[in-house]
Model the fold of this input.
Amino acid sequence: MRGLHRVAVARRLRRDITDAERKLWYQLRDRRLAGVKFKRQVPIGRYYADFASLEHHLIIEVDGGQHALAEETDAARTKELEAMGFLVLRFWNSDVLTNMEGVIESILAVIQHAPEPPHPNPLPSGERGRDPFGKDSDP
Done:
């Protein structure tokens, strides 16, 4: 039942998008930004990320004026999301609406300089470089 509620909330958030979120979504959707797949209003943990690239472990938040009053709450949210392995970028609505080029440059800089995500099924320690037939690959 809880999963259905989360889906309903995410759908409502997608429907009730702000002007700044709409403008940024236009730049991010359909892999328009460096071929990166972004989703919007993604449930992550107990939060809903405005935009997220799960592949790059990147969350983008677009904050309105109400967030100026909730700095501690936003900081705690960011800390929790970072503990889950995500990098959180925050932009003010006004920046998105008046400086989209700068916002996109900031996002691209993070994507282009992000380390490659770890392989989902790494080899056990000590098995790298070992020949599958029992011989070490080092001479």
User: Anything to note?
Assistant: The mean pLDDT is 82.
